[in-house]
Amino acid sequence: MCGDDMHKMYKENGESKDSVPEIFAVLRKSSDFMQYESRTKDHPIWIAYFRTLVDMKILHQSILPQVQGDWKTLDELIGLVPIENIIITIDTDVIKEKLLDGYVLINLAEYGSNVALFRATLNKAREVSLPEVEFSVVGPKEAFVESIESNINLIRKRIPIDKLRVKEMKIGDLSQSKVAVLYVDGVANEENVHTIWERMKDIHFDQICDSSYITQMISDNHNSPFPQLLDTERPDRVAAILAEGKVAIMVDGSPHVLIGPTTLVEFFSAFEDYSLNWILASFFRLVRLFAVAFSILITPIYVAALTYHYELIPKDLLNTLVSSRREIPLPPILEALFLELTIELLREAGARLPTKVGQTIGIVGGIVIGTASVEAGLTSNVLLIIVALAALGSFTTPVYVMGNTIRLLRFPFLIFAQMYGLLGIVFCFCFLIAHLLKLTSLGRPFLEPIFPPRVADMKDALIRLPFSVMSKRPYEVRAKEPKRFSGKKAKQNKDIDE
Question: What burial class does residue 95 get, using C-beta atoms within 10 Å of its C-beta: 0-12 exposed, 13-18 middle, 19+ buried?
Answer without folding.
Answer: buried
